[in-house]
Amino acid sequence: MALGQPNGHGRFEILERHVDENRGIVRRVGSRSVWLCLFACVAFASSVAAQVPFDSPMDNPFEDGEQYAVPQPLVAPRQRLPTINSPIAVEPDLSPCAEPTTLAELLFADGRQSPSDYRSGSFQKLSFINTYLPRKGGGGYGTEDAEITSVWGLPLPSKDSPLVITPGFATHWVDGPDQRDIPAQLHDAYAEFRWLPQIAESFRADLAVQPGYYSDWNGGTARAFRLTGHASGIFNATHDLQFVLGVAYLDRTDTRMLPIVGLIWKPNLDEEYRLVFPSPKLSYRIGSDALRTLGNAGKQETENWIYLGGELGGGTWAIRHSDGTSDLMSYSDWRVFLGIETRSIRMASSQIEVGYVFHRRIRLESLGDDFDVGTTLMVRGGLSF
């Protein structure tokens, strides 16, 4: 339900809720069972597909007619052998930083370091994220969210200006508040199309459009369809400093648009300062050696990071009240969280976050006012393959 999380991520009238609790429990358990089965099947299929070798340029659209070589190990600086009367002289390695050559490097160019990406084909990632916000009191509002997404890339027209396609589906199990007639489940079905063209040597555009269907499955087709997106530019001031400027269109009844503005500073390989509104993030890599050898399968590149972040959460859905009337429900909040993440390419990546959620509002279009549901905590965990 978050902006960016990708997904990243409430509308109302005061009515007496007539809900059969036992049937609601059965529906909820059944939905979770379907989620678990769906995730297991998709994860197995994607893991099999990711192991299929690329045998031709047609199988690997990011190849652009050239072969991808396995990254070579780091080489120590060149040394001249000393003569009898001269000390050892070391020649510094003055070679420039390598240009991004894979889709992940382009996606992470907006402020996030990544291990070397071995996935040079169209499939990039499959992710599953679960978020829990507990309800506090009769006027509180709690949610449990489960979201699954996959990331695919195509050259448009080349691998340096890729089109990134991210389809996703999410279900939100709602708890409260007692003062509002809100359905027990809300759903998101969407696909983001994101283009990252290289305009100049030091400037890249980031353009995205995301059509989606957001509803309780009963709120009506036209009102449930929303079109969101963003347009921004990333200017490379120096090799470790970038400036970001743009705008995000949310198409929500409580928030239509938001600015995207800030800077990204990466002074070294262990620190990332993404000071960009509305999703700032400060990250620090744990450990002195980010590359570890796991088992006998060769080198598996993994990195462990801790981070402090913030984001805008919520969304807008078309719903139907218990008396049969249709409405638009919007929910919004601001979140501050602390997390730890393990990033890997050949193995599963994982993350877990705990945070504080405040400025929480629910708005029903039929009523027109905001209903405060109080503060709460957040626990979020995810797996990526």
Keywords for this entry:
385 residues; mainly beta; disordered N terminus
Your description of this structure?
With 385 residues, this protein is mostly beta strands. The protein has one domain (21-54, 98-384). It has three helices and 19 strands. The strands form two sheets. Strands 3-4-5-6-8-9-10-11-12-13-15-16-17-19 form a 14-stranded antiparallel beta barrel. It has a two-stranded antiparallel ribbon with strand order 1-2. The longest helix is centred in the first third of the chain and has 30 residues, at 21-50. It is globular. The chain starts with 20 loop residues before the first helix and ends with a strand.
Going across the major beta sheet, what is the strand order?
A: 3-4-5-6-8-9-10-11-12-13-15-16-17-19
What is the helix tally? 3
Which spans of ≥5 residues are poorly predicted at pLDDT below 50? 1-30, 42-106, 108-118, 290-300
Helix content: 10-25%
Mean pLDDT: 76
Outline type: globular
Radius of gyration: 24 Å
Strand tally: 19
Q: Kindly, what is the distance between the CA atoms of the first and last residues, rounded to a whole number of angstroms? A: 21 Å
Binned strand content? over 45%
The chain-level structural class is mainly beta
Total domain units: 1
Helix-strand pattern: HEEHEEEEEEHEEEEEEEEEEE
* Main pleated sheet: 14 strands, antiparallel, barrel
